[in-house]
Structures are given as structure tokens and as C-alpha cells.
Specification:
The structure holds two protein chains of two kinds. By secondary structure, chain A is mainly α. Chain A has helices at residues 7-28, 36-43, 47-66. Chain A starts with 6 loop residues before the first helix and ends with a helix. The model of chain B has no long low-confidence stretch (mean pLDDT 90). The two termini of chain B are 20 Å apart. The chains are: A mainly alpha, B mainly alpha. The interface between A and B is large, with 39 and 60 residues.
Chain lengths: 69, 156
């Protein structure tokens, strides 16, 4: 049985491919560009940004483990 | 005087935390998403994470929010003077993170079979007890990092 690929999945695959390509560039660029660790640490730089990220983490946990999937 | 004590305590703290994560994940793994155990545990962990973040961050947050915002506004305003690598990095990360958040929100609001949300794909993993347990452990680890990472020395 063949499963059809819906349009939304194509967008997700494009985003995932973009992320993989970017991570590949980061791995090959030897620290020239800003990596994921620095991005996360940037978010943790202030109370406001840390609070927003923690709220997103909590909401994601609630959604994934208590709601939809 | 304090260093040797701290050096001995930190590995024990990590080991205790890892044990707690494994135990919680093993307990969480077979629960269904509708169970009260799943609801209470996730809610309590989120509240605890905010509580611990407040305790750990008292006087140890790296920057004030005002200074953090001002620094980033200044960076955006003077982007032409920044290095090319920094500008490209900021642009690509903004597109990737903004793209994921925006597309997930659009898919969630529209609620169409043609537009699956990110949690739809994650559901293929969490429907199995092993997948749910492993993802729960990852979620706890990420939360612990968000709570404790990038702390400055305590201000006097």
C-alpha cells in the first residue's frame, strides 16, 4: 500500500533538509558561524528570554506527553 | 577550601539527577496521555523547573532583560557593521527557528489532514512505551539545561 505525501509533509521535509545542510556547513566551517550551542546560550542570557524558552519547553512537554499525539 | 568540596559534590549531584531522570522516564513510559499521572507529573515538573530556575538564577542571571534587549536591538540596528559570518548565521537561524514555529502554528490552527503538525510526527514515536520514555528523558535533560546553563558568578 502506498502512502501519499501531503503538502504539509513536504514543508517539514524542506525545513529538516535545511537544518541538516546548515548543521553540515557548521561542522565544516570550524567555528566561523554561530552554532546551536551559542544560539541556546543566547536565549538563556536574560530572565525574559530564559522564561520564554522555559515556557515553550513546558508547553511542548504538556502537548507531547498529555495531549495530542 | 570550597573547591575540593564542590568538586566532590558535583559528580554525585549529576549521578543523582541522572538516576532521577531514568526513574521518572521509566515510570512515565507506559502511561497514556490521558492518564492523571501523566498530567500531574508533567505539570509538577514544569512548575518545579520554573521554581529551580528562580532559585538558581537569583543574582546569577547573566544579563538584565533591559540590557539583553538593548544589546540585541543595537546589534540589529548596526547589522551592516557586523561580520558577514555573524549576519549569515543570524539570518539562517531566524529562518529555521521562525520557519518551524510558524509552520507548526499554521498547521495547528488549520487542523487539516494535509498539514500535519510536528507533534503528529512525534506521536509516531511516543505511541510506543520505549519511544515515550526516551523522549521524556530527553525532555527532562533539555529542561535541566535550560534551567541551569549560563549562570554568572553570584553578584555581591
Amino acid at each position: 500500500m502506498m502512502s501519499t505525501v501531503v503538502p504539509g509533509t513536504v514543508v517539514w521535509v524542506a525545513l529538516a533538509a535545511g537544518a541538516v545542510v546548515w548543521l553540515g556547513v557548521l561542522a565544516l566551517s570550524a567555528g566561523r558561524f554561530v552554532g546551536p550551542r551559542r544560539v541556546v546560550r543566547w536565549f538563556l542570557g536574560s530572565w525574559l528570554s530564559r522564561g520564554i524558552v522555559l515556557a515553550a519547553w513546558g508547553a511542548a512537554g504538556w502537548h507531547v506527553f498529555c495531549q495530542r499525539p | 577550601m570550597h573547591r575540593p568540596q564542590r568538586a566532590g559534590v558535583v559528580p554525585i549531584a549529576y549521578a543523582l539527577f541522572a538516576t532521577l531522570v531514568l526513574a521518572l522516564s521509566a515510570w512515565q513510559a507506559p502511561l497514556s496521555r490521558q492518564s492523571s499521572g501523566a498530567h500531574w507529573s508533567v505539570a509538577l515538573l514544569v512548575v518545579a523547573a520554573f521554581g529551580v530556575a528562580l532559585v538558581l538564577g537569583r543574582g546569577r542571571q547573566y544579563e538584565t532583560t533591559r540590557r539583553w534587549v538593548a544589546r540585541n536591538v543595537h546589534y540589529v540596528r548596526t547589522w551592516r557593521t557586523q561580520s558577514r559570518a555573524a549576519v549569515v548565521s543570524a539570518f539562517v537561524w531566524a529562518v529555521l527557528i521562525g520557519g518551524v514555529v510558524t509552520w507548526d502554528l499554521v498547521s495547528f490552527v488549520v487542523q487539516s489532514h494535509d498539514l500535519p503538525t510536528l507533534s503528529y510526527f512525534i506521536g509516531h514515536v511516543t505511541r510506543y512505551a520505549v519511544g515515550r520514555g526516551l523522549l521524556f528523558a530527553v525532555w527532562l535533560g533539555v529542561g535541566a539545561y535550560l534551567v541551569s546553563a549560563r549562570r554568572a558568578e553570584r553578584r555581591q
